[in-house]
Write a structure and sequence with these properties.
The chain has 461 residues and is an alpha+beta fold. Among the domains are: 138 residues, no CATH class; 77 residues, Sandwich (Maltose phosphorylase, domain 3), CATH 2.60.420.10. The chain contains 13 helices and 24 strands. A six-stranded mixed beta sheet has the order 1-19-20-24-21-22. The chain has a three-stranded antiparallel beta sheet with strand order 8-11-12. It has a three-stranded antiparallel beta sheet with strand order 17-18-23. A hairpin with a 2-residue loop joins β9 and β10. α10 packs across α11. The radius of gyration is 21 Å and the shape is globular. The model has no long low-confidence stretch (mean pLDDT 96).
């Protein structure tokens, strides 16, 4: 696939993103991969894929960019047990695997993988319904999707002895842990949105109404428990409600259609983008320092958030996040994992130390894959406006200031290979043609085959 624009800045950032992605494609064997095959690692400082990274990378870009690698990475985090297939990884957010799996299925039409994915998600949902579901409030327990470090949480959940891992919380707090499941008594916005999407995925791919009913119940519970008179909660559970702003919870809630678009009206951002959690937790704040998972900017969150904001005509929000990430990548020659919200520089943040009392300053890992794929998603899902459904693909493009031409060549969708040319300015299509024939909208049928050229001329409002 080749992507080029009329902006030299964006072209340079695209080149950096692709290099960061390619450098993380390595041979690997795990899960259902019985032999070493190429997969996408989480980043240059990681030696394996992670379930959450795998899913988000596949959704962002990899299902379009390299089908083989996307499939290999998805199956590498599955686990085969005596009673069937399950999604592996850190227990609370393993269910987000459904996001990447569904995207891969919709883009490739891979029937064999579809059967595998449905089995793994069904079994995983059944397991978590038994072990991590709070029937009294209709929510799933577990930490936030991206929040494996205790610096993502308020004091009640943030003390795990001398461990920085939220997984060690029950062991450090045996009297406060619950006896069902893993024992962490919190319910988080992002994780429950991920469960909702998993139910919807199974319902759509199988037609089984029971999953649709469960999805509807969970959505109602999310809105009832997290959307409080216009204010969003981050955590609800045994130790009360917490109203910190969870960037990924907002992004996933919008992506999956759980939260209303009006939540964007109250979002608090920084001069370097929406923070992962706001405000930062006081126990880490010292001078300019803050927690690794609170107050800092994690660009994969910003990318998801920006695209969802653009879908709701928040053009300026998209522009800000898009150009900021491009500038950072060009400045650093790579996509770092985390940035400081005030300086905009790579910054790893503070977290509990495994080696001593107090906190350690951690690293902002290098060549981070989900930030690179996130930038590419901003182009595919944001600027090109690619939307995938069970019926086909459509485009709802937007050209930000300074980007008058976008060309995408060699984009594979099912059995077709697309060449997309978007020119002009703004987000109103003036002329649309597919293979030289004028159309009202840019739509590609799910059964389309062969080479297809799409030309769209845009105009300002």
């Amino acid at each position: 696939m080749n992507i080029s624009t009329s902006s030299e800045k964006i072209n340079r950032a695209v080149d950096i993103a692709l290099k960061d992605i390619d450098v993380n494609i390595k041979p690997f064997r795990s899960g259902l991969l019985l032999d070493e095959k190429p997969v996408l690692l989480a980043g240059a400082d990681y030696d394996r894929p992670w379930t959450r990274d795998t899913s988000i990378n596949t959704y962002n870009f990899m299902a379009f960019y390299n089908r083989e690698v996307a499939r290999n990475t998805l199956v590498s985090v599955l686990r085969s047990k005596a009673d069937g297939l399950y999604v592996g990884g850190q227990y609370w957010d393993s269910i987000i695997w459904a996001l990447g799996a569904e995207s891969y299925i919709d883009i490739t039409g891979d029937g064999e993988f579809t059967d595998t994915a449905i089995e793994a998600i069904k079994n995983s949902l059944a397991y978590f319904e038994k072990n991590e579901y709070s029937s009294d409030i209709g929510l799933f327990r577990g930490p936030a999707v991206y929040g494996d470090g205790v610096s993502a949480y308020p004091d009640e959940y943030g003390i795990s002895g001398r461990s920085g891992s939220i997984l060690d919380w029950p062991k450090a707090n045996p009297a406060r842990a619950i006896k069902t499941g893993y024992g962490i008594p919190m319910h988080t916005l992002s994780t429950n949105c991920a469960y909702y999407n998993a139910y919807m995925m199974v319902s759509r791919l199988t037609g089984e109404k029971g999953y649709l009913i469960k999805a509807g119940r969970l959505k109602n519970s999310i809105l009832e428990n997290f959307h409080d008179k216009g204010k969003l909660k981050y955590i609800t559970g045994a130790f009360g409600d917490h109203y910190e702003q969870e960037g990924l919870g907002i992004a996933l809630g919008l992506l999956f259609g759980v939260l209303p678009g009006c939540v964007l009206d109250t979002v608090i951002s920084t001069k370097n983008g929406i923070p992962c959690v706001h405000p930062p937790y006081a126990r880490y704040v010292s001078g300019s320092d803050m927690g690794r998972h609170s107050g800092t900017v994690w660009p994969f969150i910003n990318c998801l958030y920006a695209v969802e904001a653009l879908k709701r005509h928040r053009n300026h929000t998209f522009d800000f996040e898009f150009f900021k990430l491009a500038d950072n990548a060009i400045r650093d020659g790579q996509f770092y994992e985390i940035y400081h919200p005030k300086t905009g520089m790579p910054y790893g943040g503070l977290q509990e130390s495994h080696r001593s009392e107090g906190f350690s300053m951690l690293k902002s890992c290098e060549h981070q894959a989900w930030n690179a794929t996130g930038f590419m998603s901003m182009i595919l899902h944001g600027i090109a406006g690619i939307r995938i459904s069970g019926l086909g693909m459509s485009l709802d493009p937007y050209l930000p200031p300074g980007v008058g031409i976008v060309k995408i060549d060699g984009l594979r969708y099912r059995n077709a290979e697309l060449s997309i040319n978007i020119e002009g300015a703004g987000r109103i299509p003036r002329n649309v043609s597919v293979n030289g024939k004028k159309q009202h909208t840019a739509c590609i049928d799910i059964e389309a085959r062969g080479d297809i050229s799409i030309d769209i001329m845009m105009r300002e409002i």
